Amino acid sequence: MNWDEFAEWSKQIADWGAAYHTGLPDRPVRAQTKPGEIAAQLPSSPPQQGEDMAAILKDFDAIVMPGMTHWQHPRFFAYFPSNAAPPSILAEQLVNTVAAQCMLWQTSPAATEVEGVMVDWLRQALGLAEGYTGVIQDSASSATLSAVLTMRERATGYTGNREGLSGKGHLRIYCSDQVHSSIDRACWVAGIGQDNLVKIGTNGPRHAMDVASLEAAIAADRAAGHTPAGIIAITGGTGIGASDDLAPILDLAQRHDLYTHLDAAWAGSAMICPEFRETFWTGVDRCDSIVFNPHKWLGVQFDCSVQFLRDPAPQLNTLKIEPEYLKTTGAAVTNYSEWTIPLGRRFRALKIWFLLRSYGLEGLQTRIRNHVAWAGDLCEAIRGLDGFEIVTEPILSLFSFRCPGDDAAQQRLVDAINDDGRVYLTQGAFDGRKIIRVQVGQFDTTREDVMTVLTVIQDTWEQIQ
Ligand SMILES: *Cc1c(COP(=O)(O)O)cnc(C)c1O
Question: N or C: which end of the chain has fewer CB within 10 A?
Answer without folding.
Answer: C
